[in-house]
């Protein structure tokens, strides 16, 4: 059995989980999320208020989806209770970010400012002109938006300029040797 998949999922107070066939809906203080579980996997409510992810057989695909399904449902519960945050930093001369309503406007050394619109369920917080965060209840969407913003100007290995995650270590390269 999958070591992760066989662990029960604790459902905290204030979170409502509804199972309708293969569809799992989770409602909490921060919002609601819905996920459809892959075909061979089943989810059942335990008598002690937990959720159990079950697989019908030991086929390779069932084993692979067992732990994945359990983690996705557990991430939904965490999202509606605590939410997810990805913090990013900008380094470089003249590089900065400003909040324009619910959108972000970046100056990243291009000839024009870049405006990033907040997708549904995502909020941006600007702490300073070089630090901001992406927040939301869906872990995948938060990570995807943060990765798309980082892609606007990836950190340069020579001067370490660009958009990077907080705590990310940029591997530096030595410049071209002169004569």
UniProtKB/TrEMBL annotation:
Concerning SUPFAM superfamilies, the annotation shows:
Ribosomal protein L6
Provide an example Pfam family for this protein: Ribosomal_L6
Going by the UniProt record, its keywords in alphabetical order are: Ribonucleoprotein, Ribosomal protein, RNA-binding, rRNA-binding
* Span of domain Large ribosomal subunit protein uL6 alpha-beta: 11-83, 92-165
Cite the Gene3D superfamilies for this sequence. Answer: Ribosomal protein L6, alpha-beta domain
Keyword Ligase attached: no
Q: What GO cellular-component annotations does this UniProt entry give?
A: ribosome
Similarity comment: family membership: Belongs to the universal ribosomal protein uL6 family.
Per the entry, what this protein does is:
This protein binds to the 23S rRNA, and is important in its secondary structure. It is located near the subunit interface in the base of the L7/L12 stalk, and near the tRNA binding site of the peptidyltransferase center.
Subunit: Part of the 50S ribosomal subunit.
Q: What name appears for this protein in its UniProt entry?
A: Large ribosomal subunit protein uL6
Species of origin reads: Streptomyces rubradiris
Task: Please name the gene that encodes this protein.
Answer: rplF
